[in-house]
Amino acid sequence: MNMFSRLTTSDHATGQVHTARAAAQVMFVLVFVLALLARAGGVGAVELHERFAAYDAQSAQKVDHSAWNRLLKTYLHTSKDGLNRFDYAALNAGGMAGLNKYLSSLQSVDPAVLSRDEQFAFWTNLYNAKTVEIVAAHYPVRSIRDIKLSGVFIRGPWREKLLTVSGVRLSLDNIEHDIMRPIWRDPRVHYAANCASVGCPNLLMRAYSGASLEKMLDQAARAYINSPRGVSFNGSRVVVSSLYKWYAADFGGSVESVLAHLRKYAEPALAKRIAGVTRFSGYEYDWTLNDKQ
After folding, report:
1. Where are the strands (E) in the chain, listed by range?
2. How many CB atoms lie within 10 A of CB 272?
3. Is residue 267 part of a domain?
4. DSSP character for 189?
5. Residue 132: which residues within 8 A CB-CB, separation 6 or more?
6. Which residues, at least 6 apart from 120, have a Cβ–Cβ distance to it below 8 Å?
7. Do 21 and 62 lie in a common domain?
8. Which of 46, 73, 99, 240 lies 20 to 30 Å from 252, alpha-carbon distance?
9. Whole-angstrom Cα distance, residue 189 to residue 120?
10. 63 and 162 share one domain
11. What is the Cα–Cα distance from 98 to 86, expressed in whole angstroms?
């Protein structure tokens, strides 16, 4: 083989490599776009907001969450570090039928006939109960992010449309980001919706209810903010949960507004420690599953 032939062969091989890389890049983009379309499929975010914005301010109707209360009492336990841990293994052994029945009952509810507070409790309990069901169905797993339902490049179960409310197919992301956050515009949403992780605010020991909503949301905010998962210290360094970075806009959009939010719920000892803080040294979040140890 002469020099020209060697160069031609080399050029051909290089061209094949470049073509393969280009094809792989195109495929990645295509999969990513399809994943986004899958998430938005059916009803768009704005449409969901509008679809579920209706409520009845005079309604006295209550949703029955007694089944969820029984499940929480049986399978949720407070550990020494203050983290509420769920016994997914025990639920699998004897409680899945009850959980699925409860989820079916919630999906038969029309949220539009409820008061605003009762709606918040409805969506929160639906979100949390479905999260528990998904994790239990795939248990044991190290993290909820290891559960893949939607596609190769999508971690976690949040984008899969696994629920139907008022004839609309919904994912967990739809409930949290397209319904609860835009309708209520309350940062305490992030203390209510539980992602089955150590770094997440606790799954409360009882179901949310419209009658006790404000008290329960404040309780959840205080419990998280005053725990090391919310705010921790390493010498002079102040590290806060990544929730305050990911959803900074919900907490006012600046470090100053996040600090004001933290001070609102901080116990005296914590309030004193963060009194002079003007910046955060870092953000942390532990995605380890909140299962019973």
Report:
1. 76-78, 84-86, 163-165, 168-170, 231-234, 237-241, 282-284
2. 10
3. no
4. H
5. 71, 86, 88, 91, 99, 196, 203
6. 180, 184, 192, 208, 210, 213
7. no
8. 46
9. 9
10. yes
11. 16
In terms of domains, do 96 and 150 share one? yes
Q: Which amino acid is at 231?
A: V
Residue with tokens 């970075």: 245
CB neighbours of residue 33 within 10 Å: 10
Beta pairing class for 84-86 and 163-165: unpaired
d(CA 133, CA 151): 20
Question: DSSP 3-state assignment of 17?
Answer: helix
Residue 265 lies in a domain: no
pLDDT tens track for 2-25: 443 433 444 444 445 444 455 445
Q: 151 with 34, same domain?
A: no
Last residue of a domain, one of 191, 209, 225: 225
Q: Whole domain around residue 35: which residue ranges? A: 1-40
Token output for 255 = 């470090």
Decide if 264 is inside a domain: no
pTM score above 0.90: no
Task: Confirm whether 64 is domain-assigned.
Answer: yes
Number of structural domains found in the chain: 2
Token output for 98: 């009850």
